[in-house]
Amino acid sequence: MTSTIAIEVLLGAVVFTVVSFLRWLRQHRCLFGARGKSIQWADVWASILFVLVFSGPPTLRVRDPAASIRGDVDSVVLLHLLVWGLAGAWVCYQVVRRSLVERRTALQLWVPQKIGLALIICLGASALVSPGLALTLFKVYQILVMLLFSLLFVQRYGVEACMNRLFLGSGLLVIAIAVAAFSAPDVLWAGSRLRGDLIAPAGETSVFLLILLCANRQRLPTIWFGVLFMVSVVVLIFSRTRTAYISIAAVLSLAILLRPKLPILRRFAFLMLALLPLAIFVPSISNWIIRDPESINTLSDRTGLWTDLTGITLEKSPVIGLGYYAASRVYGLQYNSGLGTAHSEFIETLVGGGILSAAVLVALWLTLFVYAASLLREKKDRTPFVCFSLLMSIMLSSLTGTVEGPYALAFWCVAAILPTLSAKRTRLLTNF
After folding, report:
1. Residues in Cβ contact with 420 at an 8 Å cutoff, skipping those fewer than 6 apart
2. Greatest CA span in the chain, whole angstroms?
3. pLDDT score, position 37
4. What is the pTM of this model?
5. How far apart are CA 187 and CA 62, in angstroms?
6. Which of 131, 270, 150, 269 is nearest to 210 (CA)?
7. Dist CA 314 CA 327 (whole Å)
8. CA-to-CA distance for 313 and 311, rounded, in angstroms?
9. What band does 70 get if pLDDT is binned at 50, 70 and 90?
10. C-alpha count within 13 angstroms, C-beta hemisphere, residue 334
11. What is the rounded average pLDDT of the residues 87-113?
12. How many angstroms separate the CA atoms of 321 and 349, rounded?
């Protein structure tokens, strides 16, 4: 019953957001960049598909971690197959259109995308030994689709359009979490924590929205900005997610140090700085933030899980791993029946794809941070800072969680945006 209510709430939020989005498109044609004067329905559907892929889509139910290993199929699985199938079809259509109709290079791959393809190949090799072949292949397929989808979307519609879709998707998810928190509390609440896992991780998604909201301040009416800002802050607070608290603190610290062209973000940073003594010296507030002091040393038993999974991987299959996203669901359940994943993207990659995949993943992260750091050093534009902030938030979240849903597509969008901005800057310097 509660799952049905949650689904109805989410669908209602989707309809409301899409209608508002279409009205926004009519009023602000510049959202599609140079194509804004001739918006086609194909462009609108591409944006809707972007939001659907960004959302995951939501799981909307508690599922046995071993169900994916067994290949169990339900309505949510069918929805995922439909959305990801449409996303793959859109990628194929764009590649064919660019090569045959527009007579352009089908794919212009930047360095991060080339490293990403190497990572996909390495993770794909783990399917040979995976206990859940279909699950591993589907997860690898998702990465491939997100890599190509984000790249083609940026190349077709531009950086600004991609950032706006990330903002739209984050806003939709946070609103859905906030509404469902009242209409279906037993679905999203875990004690005093608003986890939101069946829709999207509440804390990290609200951090995304806060970052992107400050970047879009000038385009939003004051009332809409105020409502979204307050909702995202409330969701962040009640999520009681320590990683999300650290992420927003790191972003606000960077805003003070680097002084990007985001005045509203800097004001928010100084406000939080002024309130910092309350979080330190008021016991009730500090206990709320820390949540469970005894779990900090072991990161809620994650360190034991990581040690166990790493040992098993190095013993059984250190090079290609044991099967991406499948092995951790088998051996993680043996360690603790309540843990369904490795609870760290780096450990998930090591266990699933072995040392080879883990090394490629580290190289990918280092490459993206080099791009971001070079752009931040040269100028204080909002887009490089927003990308760096999103990248940093995703990295912090991936240390103790898996990169799925909003994290995943946002990561590959940043991977497409950063080299695009770097290439534009190089061309400007060359022309000058």
Report:
1. 110, 154, 155, 159
2. 65
3. 47
4. 0.88
5. 9
6. 269
7. 13
8. 5
9. confident
10. 8
11. 86
12. 8
Q: How many residues does the chain have?
A: 432
Return the residue matching tokens 């995703």.
394
Return the percent helix, strand and coil in the chain, to nearest 5: 80, 0, 20
Containing H/E element for 193? Answer: strand 193-194
Separation between Cα atoms, residue 240 and residue 191, nearest integer Å:
11
Task: Provide the CA 344 distance to its chain's centre, in angstroms.
Answer: 14
Greater confidence (302 vs 1) lies with 302
Contact of 262 with 385, CB cutoff 8 Å: yes
Tokens at 398, concatenated: 């991936």
Neighbouring C-beta atoms of residue 40, cutoff 10 Å: 10
pLDDT greater at residue 35 or residue 317 = 317
Place of tokens 């945006």: 417
Question: Look-up: residue for tokens 């609200």?
Answer: 206
Instruction: With residue 390 as reference, give the H or E element that holds it.
Output: helix 382-400
Task: Give the pLDDT confidence of 240-252 residue by residue, as tens digits.
Answer: 888 888 999 999 9
Q: Is the pLDDT of residue 10 over 60?
A: no
In this structure, are residues 244 and 207 in contact, taking their beta carbons and an 8 Å threshold?
A: yes
Q: What amino acid is encoded at 261 in this protein?
A: K
Encoding tokens for residue 75? Answer: 């309505």
How many of the other CB atoms lie within 10 Å of CB of 266? 17
φ, ψ for residue 190 (rounded to 5)?
-125, 90
User: With contact defined as beta carbons under 8 Å apart, do 126 and 136 qualify?
Assistant: yes
For the chain, what is the mean pLDDT? Answer: 82
- Model confidence at 432: pLDDT above 50: no
Q: Return d(Cα 401, Cα 342) in angstroms, integer.
A: 8
Dig out the tokens for 32 from the structure: 């599609």
Q: Which residue has the tokens 């794909």?
A: 124
Which has more confidence, 95 or 219? Answer: 95
CA dist 347 and 337 (Å) reads 18
Cα distance between residue 271 and residue 312, in whole Å: 47
Q: Please, is 427 exposed, middle or buried when counting C-beta atoms within 10 Å of its C-beta (0-12, 13-18, 19+)? A: exposed
Contact 350, 358 (CB under 8 A): yes
Amino acid 215 reads A
- Give 107's pLDDT tier (boundaries 50, 70, 90): confident
pLDDT at 140: 94
Asked whether the beta carbons of 115 and 370 are under 8 A apart, the reply is no
